[in-house]
Amino acid sequence: MQPIDPSAFRLTVAPMMDWTDRHCRYFHRLLSPHARLYTEMVTSAALVRGGQVRLLEHSHEEHPVALQLGGSDPAELASAAILGAQAGYDEINLNVGCPSDRVQSGKFGACLMREPELVGECVRAMAGVVDVPVTVKCRIGVDDQDEYADLQHFTQVMVQAGVKHLVVHARKAWLEGLSPKENREIPPLDYGRVYRLKQEFPDLTIVINGGITTVEAVQEHLAHVDGVMLGRAAYHDPFVLAQLETALYGAPMADRADVLERMRIYIEAELARGTALKHITRHILGLYQGEPGARGFRRQLSEGAHLPGADWSVIESAMAPLRQAA
Question: In the predicted model, what is the mean pLDDT of residues 151-167?
Answer without folding.
Answer: 98
